């Protein structure tokens, strides 16, 4: 008790609130009751132990379950997201709902529709919205309209909104316009800035297409090693990028 009284009042209040919150989590999630004693008897340390052993691993498990569930839904009904997004636009044609529809259309390979929806959404105060411009640029790249995509990407860059996905889109646009040196620089930058396998796979495919198979082989080996450590829906996604990297 003496040690608690020696703690400054604001810190004591925060510690007690932290412990009470964790106790509520114990009860609500049906954890073993001994955690209540640990949290309350060992103020601070007990709570941190509960976070490390129960709460944080639980968050990661929940995310994995959600991803697996999403993968199963997509496999059984690949058009579900598109239907729901289209219904949302028909009910309320907001920019957010249009972006959702465009993204869903793109996932299904309906790039002409995606480009049109992004273009229609980019009106008025949203005319220079970087998210809309980037989405439309990606759709244009898929349609082989690289020069138009580059115009949009350069507008994003002028506004200082050139994110990692925009850099990757720059690389793809340059590649489509046969500006190999610019594409090479952009792909390298995208790999440094963007997590995941996509930038590595696209750069490997680019290297194969410009006659640099040795460099591509090293990247493909890296992709294969990373893919081997994945499972479930993550494994299926990794396979997509493995296939793209190997096609060249």
Q: What does this molecule look like?
A:
This protein has 248 residues and is mainly alpha-helical. The protein is built from 14 helices and no strands. The protein has helices spanning 2-5, 9-29, 34-41, 45-76, 80-91, 95-107, 111-121, 130-142, 146-158, 164-176, 180-193, 198-209, 213-227, 232-247. The longest helix has 32 residues, at 45-76. It is extended, with a radius of gyration of 24 Å. Mean pLDDT is 83; it is low at 1-5.
Overall average residue pLDDT: 83
CATH third-level topology of the largest domain: Serine Threonine Protein Phosphatase 5, Tetratricopeptide repeat
Query: How many structurally independent domains?
Result: 3
The CATH class name of the largest domain reads Mainly Alpha
User: What's the multimeric state?
Assistant: single chain
Radius of gyration: 24 Å
Large-scale geometry: extended
Q: How much β-strand is present in the residues?
A: under 5%
By CATH, the architecture of the largest domain is named: Alpha Horseshoe
- Would you identify the regions where 5 or more consecutive residues have pLDDT less than 50? 1-5
Number of helices: 14
Question: Could you give a short description of this structure?
Answer:
Helices cover 79% and strands 0% of the residues.
Keywords:
Serine Threonine Protein Phosphatase 5, Tetratricopeptide repeat; 3 domains; mainly alpha; disordered N terminus; 248 residues; 14 helices
């Amino acid at each position: 008790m003496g040690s608690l009284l020696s703690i400054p009042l604001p810190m004591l209040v925060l510690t007690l609130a932290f412990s009470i919150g964790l106790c509520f989590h114990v009860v609500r999630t049906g954890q073993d009751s001994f955690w209540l004693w640990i949290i309350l008897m060992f103020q601070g340390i007990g709570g941190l132990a509960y976070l490390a052993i129960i709460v944080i691993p639980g968050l990661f498990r929940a995310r994995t379950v959600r991803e697996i569930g999403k993968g199963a839904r997509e496999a059984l009904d690949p058009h579900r997201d598109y239907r729901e997004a289209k219904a949302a636009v028909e009910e309320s044609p907001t920019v957010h709902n249009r972006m959702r529809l465009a993204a869903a259309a793109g996932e299904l390979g309906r790039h002409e529709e995606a480009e049109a929806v992004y273009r229609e959404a980019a009106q008025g105060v949203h005319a220079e919205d970087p998210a809309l411009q980037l989405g439309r640029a990606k759709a244009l790249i898929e349609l082989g309209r690289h020069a138009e995509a580059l115009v949009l990407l350069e507008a994003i860059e002028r506004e200082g909104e050139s994110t990692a996905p925009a850099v990757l889109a720059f690389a793809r646009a340059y590649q489509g316009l046969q500006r190999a040196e610019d594409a090479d620089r952009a792909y390298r930058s995208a790999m440094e800035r963007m997590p995941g396998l996509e930038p590595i796979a696209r750069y490997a495919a680019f290297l194969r297409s410009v006659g640099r198979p040795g460099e591509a082989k090293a990247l493909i080996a890296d992709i294969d090693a990373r893919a081997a450590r994945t499972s479930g829906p993550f494994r299926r996604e990794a396979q997509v990028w493995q296939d793209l990297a190997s096609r060249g």
